[in-house]
Write a structure and sequence with these properties.
Elements lengths: L1 E6 L3 H12 L4 E7 L2 H11 L3 E4 L8 H10 L5 E6 L4 H9 L4 E4 L4 H12 L4 E2 L1 H9 L6 H11 L4 H8 L3 H15 L4 H11 L3
Parallel strand pairs: 1-2, 1-3, 3-4, 4-5, 5-6
Helix pairs in contact: 4-6, 7-9, 7-10, 8-9, 9-10
GO molecular function: DNA binding
Protein name: Response regulator transcription factor
Pfam families: GerE (PF00196), Response_reg (PF00072)
């Protein structure tokens, strides 16, 4: 049996995924978590074979969970199940060590097959997304992405500086670099563009 942990913040979707996977003879859903922080606790407690996680969740995102699993060298493989059909998200997921990336509107058997393939050590990526991911490279570095995300949340340069232990001048430099790389007029437009591409 392939032991699966689900991490999904929408209760109805979480229940539907659990019910669908329960129909598979070789897959057992051993737990379900409503946010990234509790998902991490469940990963450590249950040590599932595969974590199926959304990208956007409270606490920790699915990508942050994947990075943490990789950093701790846990034997848990990760499949992203998301509505975000964006190349930028896929690239970041692959960089985080994710083995599968499937869309929630795909047929149910596609998720089950992705879990099997990733459990065997393979990859399961939507083919069109894979093509798009390598034709549209993310120009931002990690720090620029972090600063731009916080600016998009409405934080001032001073607030961002305090949160990241940087000087306000350094934060303004990162924002300026991000705005320039994206060809945006200001931080609001830069945030919007980066979100559309899946780079945040």
């Amino acid at each position: 049996m392939i032991r699966v942990l689900l991490a999904e913040d929408q209760a109805m979707v979480r229940g539907a995924l659990a019910a669908l996977l329960a129909l598979e003879p070789d897959i057992e859903v051993v737990g379900a978590a409503p946010d990234g922080v509790s998902a991490w606790r469940e990963v450590e407690r249950l040590m599932p074979d595969v974590l199926v996680t959304d990208i956007e969740m409270p606490g920790l995102t699915g990508l942050e969970l994947a990075q943490r699993i990789r950093r701790h060298e846990l034997p848990v493989r990760v499949v992203i199940a998301t509505t975000f059909a964006r190349a930028g998200f896929l690239r970041r997921a692959l960089d985080a060590g994710v083995g599968g990336y499937v869309l929630k509107d795909a047929p149910a058997e596609q998720l089950a097959n992705a879990i099997r393939q990733v459990h065997r050590g393979g990859r399961a990526i939507d083919p069109q997304l894979a093509v798009d991911a390598w034709s549209d490279a993310d120009p931002l570095n990690d720090r620029e992405r972090q600063v731009l995300r916080l600016a998009g949340d409405g934080m001032s340069a001073g607030d961002i500086a305090a949160q990241l232990n940087l000087s306000a001048g350094t934060v303004r430099n990162y924002l300026s670099e991000a705005i320039g790389k994206l060809g945006a007029a200001n931080r609001v437009e830069a945030y919007r563009l980066a979100r559309q591409k899946g780079w945040l």
